[in-house]
Amino acid sequence: MDIIHPDLVPPGLELPPNYSNPACSAYEPRLPMDLWPNVISQLPFTGLEAATLVCQYFRKLAQPLLFQTLTVKPFTFNPKTMKISPQPDSYLKWISAKLSFCCTPRIAASVRTCDVGPQDLFTDKEGESEDPGRSMIDEVFEALVKFKSLTHLILAKVVLTDTNLAQLSRLSICPSLTLMHCTSSAPAPLRLAVKTLIFRNDAAEAGLDTLLLSMVNPNEIEVFSLVGDTAKMLLPQLPHNAVFSNLHTLCYDYSIATSLPLQPFLSRCHALEEIHFAPPTNVVEMPMSQMLDPSDLPSLHVYHGPDFGAHTFTTGRPIFHVRFWGCDLWGGSRSLDQLVPYWQELQLSSELESLEFSVNRISKVFLEQIFYLFPHLKALGIVVDANEYGIYGIYTREVLMDTLSSIHLPPEIEYLSIAKYYPWGHEDTPLKDLVRMKEYLAVYPALRYVAFSGEDFSWRFDPVTGQAVDAPRIIDDWRGAHL
Question: Which parts of the chain span the membrane according to its record (predicted)?
Fold first, then answer.
């Protein structure tokens, strides 16, 4: 491997004067500058001299766990001044230095994620004579085969050529792919064995259908997310007669549900377990106009989407987990009366285990109705989006204590979170209130996480140990057994 020229060494970390001496081979390859902060922050040392010593001999001391993510994006040469923007050819030299380092066997074996985004630095279009980004992207794709543990590839604003698609096809295990505003210049699709695909594009560009058809193999795809302004245009491009036998998780842009019939596609997803609808920027209640046959989606047990569309997907199916989103006519959270009809429709799925939604206020009757309709509930997440200056009242510690003091939680409850959307301020919780709350929750032995936050308080603790929990946890953590 060639030694990187001295003019590529970060300022302050120059090679020693005897750079030309063959004995200095311990200094190759030089670590690219944008990786140094990640390294320095995780190595214990005192004083600049010790730091310099660590840096000079870093190749011998490198810990592969520090380099699980390879990022190929523009960065600033001088983080102190940020006045001089490097030219593209300088970036290419740094990218080559980074790839040289990451392709050494020890480091390459640790790379799990590769994040490639030329952004606005390069004009990544095939056929242009001046295109520094093209060579950089080709070099990255050529290196992918050396990362035997690669599990996730993220591409942003990249035009994939037929050569790039062929390079992906040579991977022993095709990683999870996230394609953000990408397209393809390949003349025809090259079917890949992608298991997980996240596909987003907001501009109708040539080559989008070729790229999508290359990534979606009906016999291989397991997780598929199709969002963005072009989603409803691309869905009809998928194979019409193929059965998606392994697809278990599907995420759609909400615009698809309001403009296209989904039944022809969903009827071919026999193993589908989860369906998610990504909310639009401005949530407006629009009819979904969807009709499913009773035999469709027999294994569906997760629904994340608009509350007004839940009936179509949950009725008659073994739903265990539901996450609602929706709003009133003024763009605020639903009221209690507006939510009740949707809960009653969900009651047909008596085995419901988790429920998430937002509401403009809480009350004793409100919670009692939830626990009555869903007696086997194990996880409940409520966001209280109250307007202090409107008609909904304030979600305070007193409101919470009064609400919970006289109701009974489901005996199997494991996760409980009632949090204000934007808590303003915080003050110490009176000890008597905290003791009272812990005594109240002690009668529920299954509880593993409790979070309450409002206008003047924020509690997060583990009822089993009675200790506070530093970071908030979500229902997905509970589902993944990571509480």
Answer: none
